[in-house]
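Bug #2210: token dump truncated for Major facilitator superfamily (MFS) profile domain-containing protein?
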Amino acid sequence: MSLTTPLTGTDAAAAAKLESWKRTVFFITFVNYAMSHFSRKCYTNVKTDLVKAGVDKMILSQMDTAFMLTYALGSFISGRLGDMFPQNVVIGVGLIGSTLCLGMIQVFEASGVVHHNYGFGFFLFVMAQFVHGFFQSTGGPVNTSVMGAWWPKKGRGLVFGLWTCHQYIGDIIAALATAFIITHGWPWQWALLVPGVANGLWGLVNLFFLPNRPADVGIETEEDKKANAQLVSSGGVAGGKQETIGFMQALMIPNVLGYAIAFGFFKLVNYACFFWLPFFLSQNFDPQSANVISSLYSVGMMPGGVIVGFVSDLYDGRRACVIATFMCLLAPLLWVFAMFSNTMPPTALLILLGVMGILVGGPNNIITSAVAADLADHPSIGGNTRVLGTVTGIINGSGSITAALGLMAIGPLQNAGGWTAVWYFLIVCVVVGTALLGPKIYKEITAHESSTAKPAPTAGKSTYTGVSTKEAA
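Reproduced locally. Full output below:
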């Protein structure tokens, strides 16, 4: 993509060009994340067919474990890669890698390797998903990094809230595509082939058409000017190549660690509801009805991010306060669900699940998008714009690990105290996660965050004095 002469942010032509490119970037990155969920969900939808083909449940279980493990660890790595290399290349490689992994699963199934050598077949299938998790992990951190470069802090909440609907759109498309393929009598392998080809082609779109930041298309925004001014004041060169900061420096950015751990507790609540609601509801409803009823929770999650983003924009970006408000509403609803879900009329149950979806989905969606972008704009960065991927990767990775560990407690809690113990456990998770945001909430309420924090060092500097005491408090 050729560069044009930089235009000033006050030029009307530059403003129109910026808005046009913003829409393009929004669309491409939205589809990027939808593609990731498209391929994941299509694979999930054909598990029954894989079992019929000889890939037993033990293999599928270990494939899921391998995927979740590398997806969590990969979030840390891919976020860092997105700050070190062109984001469109990292995203493109991730999508094309998904194509290769889905293709590997089809090839291994067609070869019948599990029938000839079960141990070797076990290894191949699990390894395919092990690698797939790394490729898929590029979606969240790196796409968020691109979006953060195009949308300034003021007013980005609503935009990111709308943008986080990508995952649900991908899941819906996957369900429709799989249903279409099966009902038309096509081989079930097409449910892996179609998302695989689509991922690969869209990866090429990223490589050739996605600009990582306004400067790539010759636009200098007001935010770029401020960042350049901060770089000059901290000894850098305006418009020069920025050094990235390491994991430890990113962790020392005020509130990053608090949000990362808090997100883990919130994500645990989300995962517990997502994985266990159908099973819990099946105690009082038939399995099909339980699945339909539990889907209202997922439906509620879609507008959740939009609502949190919009409301936090209205309150001048005070996202921690809005997130805490949602969590304070969620805790008593979880108690109501624990006490009365068995006797609640179906209509009331549907409404409750929809509201719970909004209250859980809103904070989860906005923390990994707008909040991460806000943190990466902190004054302690000194104008460095190559940190958002690392910050988002830390939040995503920490959240996934915490949630995975927490899910291990669900089964023992059911055995020890029944479902009531599980719901009380989730209430405790909500309270703990909200409490971890206490320092940030206090700062937002008192509005005394400093704008004169010491800049974080670049990777090339050997010393680090950290942020100021006031900022770290």
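Output looks complete on our side. DSSP finds 20 helices and no strands in the chain. Marking as cannot-reproduce; reopen if the truncation happens again.
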